[in-house]
Design a protein that fits this description.
By secondary structure, this protein is of the alpha+beta class. Helix content is 29%, strand content 36%. Strand 3 (47-49) and strand 4 (52-58) form a beta hairpin. The radius of gyration is 19 Å and the shape is elongated.
Length: 192
């Protein structure tokens, strides 16, 4: 058994990058509002290291509001072609402004403009309204760089639990659970 879940995750992710036809970094993100009502959606992991797993979005979105009120989340990577999944749970912290700026600069220009034009998760009366806002923002930044909007940033899920699940015949799956213990990890198995 390995003792470093981050190294094992990197191995599995490398295999997923070769085997998954679309978005091997796609993950389900589960949050909860202050009353404990859960919400889940797909997002893309944009970085991971010993500190945690990073994703970006609009701070005023539903997920942003839920994370501000209840800074804890669960992630799920499901690599169907490999018959594997990884579950991650832990507290959430905002990334630094410098990290958010650095990532935002790598996004395609249309995505950058869309971040300015969208009031993510808010009601939209007509698609034409959003398209008009996008055109307005496109003209505003024409000929120059698109800075990161103040309401757009990222979060880091700091793992306290990481479970690696391998499909096995007859539902006799293999489940390895890593649990944070101080600065290290303990590892054990779970019944399928």
């Amino acid at each position: 058994m390995a003792t470093d879940p981050h190294a094992l995750f990197e191995e599995w992710l490398a295999e997923a990058r070769l085997a998954e036809p679309n978005d091997p970094t796609a993950m389900a993100l589960a949050t909860a509002d202050p009353q404990g009502r859960p919400s889940v959606r797909m997002v893309l992991m944009k970085g991971h290291d010993e500190r945690g797993f990073v994703f970006y979005s609009n701070l005023d979105s539903r997920k942003g509001g839920e994370l501000a009120a209840n800074p804890a989340a669960a992630l799920l990577f499901h690599w169907k072609s490999l018959r594997r999944q990884v579950r991650i749970e832990g507290p959430v912290e905002p990334v630094s402004g410098a990290e958010a700026d650095s990532y935002f600069a790598t996004r395609g220009r249309d995505s950058q403009l869309g971040a300015w034009a969208s009031d993510q998760s808010r009601p939209l009366a007509a698609r034409a309204t959003f398209e008009a806002r996008y055109e307005e923002v496109r003209r505003r930044f024409e000929g120059g760089d698109v800075p990161r909007p103040p309401r757009w940033s990222g979060w880091r899920v700091i793992p306290e639990r990481i479970e690696f699940w391998n499909d096995r015949a007859h539902r006799l799956h293999e489940r390895r659970l890593f649990t944070r213990a101080g600065k290290g990890w303990t590892e054990g198995l779970l019944y399928p």
